[in-house]
Amino acid sequence: MRDFARGDPSASGAPRPDPLGLAFDAAREAAARGEVPVGAVVVRDGAVLAVAGNRPRADRDPTAHAEILAIRAACAALADERLTGCDLYVTLEPCAMCAGAISFARIRRLYFAAGDPKGGAVEHGPRFFNQPTCHHAPEVYGGLRESEAAALLRDFFRDRRS
Description:
Blueprint: E1 2-3, H1 9-12, H2 19-32, E2 39-44, E3 47-53, H3 56-59, H4 66-78, E4 86-92, H5 96-105, E5 109-114, E6 139-141, H6 146-161
Parallel strand pairs: 4-5, 5-6
Antiparallel strand pairs: 1-3, 2-3, 2-4
């Protein structure tokens, strides 16, 4: 686990890594592997439990989205199927599958960068967490570093088409 919450970064002189920044790093690594550039990070009490980037192509697994992989790794790290008290940071609005996993894992807060009008399921499409059948809805904060995430996706798909 990486701990970025201990101490005052100004006192130590060392910059404190931010979870969304780590998610962007994972997204860029995914893009370098030819995967859609999405990254996710699970944090609890200031400690980074898991960092993952998309891997559906590499793993030949359509469920290997960054969010799912990060949730699986965090559950393994905590030896628990519930991530109570954990926050998830993602570079793109989660799809319906990932929103379901977020709900079942009992993620406390979801932070995401870019909205996804085509495949997103939090602010777009089915609005998963607003459904009466959703047993747990996290606090949701979207639009963080949105232009950076949009540029990463735009550049990735532009390069794939050329």
